Amino acid sequence: MLPNQSLLYNPSQSTQFFSNKRLRLIIYYLVLAVITLLGVLYGFYFSEIFFDSNKPLWLEQILNGLKLFWLIPLPYALLNFYSFLRYPVFQGPRYKSWPAGAPPHLAGKLIFRYVTRGHSPNLVSDNVHNASHLLQKTLPLNTWAIEIVTDNPLPGIPDAPHVRVIEVPVAYKTKHGSLYKARALQYALNASPAQPEDWIIHLDEETQFDAETVRAIYCFAAEEANLTAQGRQKLPRIGQGVILYGARTIVNRLTTLADSIRVGDDYGRFRLQYENGKAYFGIHGSYIVVNNRVECLVGMDHGPEASITEDAYFALMAQSMGVKFSFIHTVMYEKSPFSVRDFIRQRRRWFGGLWLVVLSRDIPLRQRWILITFMILWSVSWLCIWMVFVNLLYPTGTPLWLAVAGGVSFAYYVTLYLIGYLRTFRWSDGRRRFIAYLFAQLFLIPVFSLIEAGGVFYGLISPPRDFQIVQKEIEPQNSFQMNAVDNTA
Fold it and tell me: 103-364: what fold?
């Protein structure tokens, strides 16, 4: 039996609410239309019609040929923009309250599984304490548990029946030689008392969540279990939601604003694939909601080449086995890298790890070809940025069609950052702060693009050979200072 319909977000319950929702949708689509028009006008204005060039013809032809690099991000921009059109970003989540004041029936438990090397014990301890307190207020005690999978001992973890620590032995080796996070997660599959009907929520050591997200995850698991039990699907789907990076503590403003594109990406191509039951682009390593039977079926032990971006490898392997995916319309919270150096190292690991995924012959080509195409475009994306600066220093006339295509691509690229920003930051947190950050978000996009390109270029000249973890824990002497600065911004 599916959860009571009172659980669903029903706009017809209130005429006023329905009107407001419809008005918001009208404004939303008008804004997207205006953005498209601005992109066209931008390209038209900077085309050869208004900026005719007196440079030699042969030079113009060469530079116009190089300007074709401006089309590299166009497929990516169009794909995300289509998702924004098809699935409105600012609609509320489905789940607002429990039916009849109680959660729907779920045979198994929700197991919130943190994975860590154990190098940030204070961070993990604080997050586990907070998560335990939140879950006790949101769910019945017998419906959830917390697991911490660690490579090293962790002091300060609550001593409670619903919290357990799984320490990976130093000598442990997987059958196929998986490393790093994949190795730890494979050990947890065997060491955890989780049952086939339980659900694993994968979390990084810094991941935080709220009660609304817990309710959404619980209802998602209950619905998936019911659909599977009724024979309407062979296996429960894997769910994933959105991660925000600046909605709570901000350590580095520059990298946090640069990460707005990741939020836009979550609401764009990642949501698009999940809404269609696919994960062609892979998944993120945090906020994964997966039935334990499915996780045991797919496994985490796929060898060293699958260990740099084990999340994407797991997703494509699961998809090749017939597992489908779903979008959970709620958010979790993490922090952006604390420095530009860590930001670039993070992108480098993703870039190199995803190349290992797409080159793996153990995954059928039909599951890899979309990610292969994306990786090729990502590998040469820095050429687009390079050509932008060449044209600024040595401008020449641009054919109208190319200028308009480039203008629309740029407008949609900005939209990714803008949507990521608007989903992360709120007007109610302070008007001056909101406006100041918004201006910085828009005007620093060229800087963000250069940093992103730096990660790709670094990955090209020096592919990652291990799983590099960026700094996650704030030093105690800096924590108060950073929060104080952020709250007065």
Answer: Spore Coat Polysaccharide Biosynthesis Protein SpsA; Chain A (3.90.550)
